[in-house]
Amino acid sequence: MSDERTPASDQDILAEIQAEVAHDLEEERPPSGGPTYQVIGALVALVVGIGGAVLSYGYGMGSLRQPGAGMWPFVVSVAIALMAAALLVVGRGLNDSEKFTRSSVLPAVGLVTFIVLAMLMPVIGFEIPSLLLCVVWLRFLGGETWRSTIITAGATVAAFYFLFLYGLRIPLPHLF
User: Fold this and answer.
1) Between the chain's N and C termini, which has fewer beta carbons within 10 Å?
2) For position 8, what pLDDT does the model report?
3) Do the beta carbons of residue 92 and residue 100 sit within 8 Å?
4) What does residue 67 show for φ and ψ, rounded to 5 degrees?
5) Which pLDDT score, from 0 to 100, does residue 46 have?
6) Which residues fall within 8 angstroms of residue 176, CB to CB, at 6 or more apart?
7) Domain boundaries, the chain
8) How far is 124 from 59, CA to CA, in rounded Å?
9) Helix (DSSP H) and strand (DSSP E) numbers for the chain
10) pLDDT higher for 31 or 165?
11) Percent helix, strand and coil across the chain, each rounded to 5?
């Protein structure tokens, strides 16, 4: 028995599926926020980038050959600030932002927990604040199961512990 489909009918089926998926995604998408929300988002990112750069500078920059604890957070924060500044320039002409909803609070909670990590790390070390941050992000912000949260958080903190302290020899404050 031969297949009676022609290439044209396969293309039609594929086009129908793509149209249906696009329609479903459009229905789930929050309403558009317009250029105002784009600018607000860029300003928030700019503040986060500048704040991160200032905080990470306080950890010590070191040198390129022997980076200090603040080197990579500083680099990432400067990159965030530069991208936010670029978005401020072009953002007024874009329409792809979404209106703020209840889920818009989740990144703010993530930011606050990250700031708490930065404040606790010099006081009690790297391990406990990092583990708590992972648990909050995975379980409460990400909705993961407790089993997945515990395994992923433990493995992540252990991996970063060995990477930063032994692999890169970055003198992070630590307990062990």
Assistant:
1) N
2) 61
3) no
4) -65, 140
5) 96
6) 127
7) 31-100, 101-176
8) 15
9) 6, 0
10) 165
11) 75, 0, 25
Tokens read off for 51: 């704040």
Closest CA to 153 of 134, 174, 173, 172: 134
Residue 109 tokens read as 């909670």
- Whole-structure pTM over 0.85, yes or no? no
37 forms beta bridges with: none
The amino acid that residue 22 corresponds to is A
Mean pLDDT of the chain: 84
pLDDT value of residue 4: 57
**DSSP labels for 76-119?**
HHHHHHHHHHHHHHHGGG----B---GGGHHHHHHHHHHHHHHH
Sign of the alpha-carbon dihedral angle for 44, 116, 54, 83: negative
- What is the rounded distance in angstroms from the CA atom of residue 132 to the CA atom of residue 102? 23
In single-letter form, the type of residue at position 91 comes to G
**CB atoms near residue 93 (< 10 Å):** 8
DSSP 3: -
Amino acid at 1: M
pLDDT at 1 over 60: no
Both tokens assigned to 137: 């992000």
Per-residue pLDDT tens over the stretch 106-115: 888 888 998 9
What does the pLDDT read at residue 7?
Answer: 58
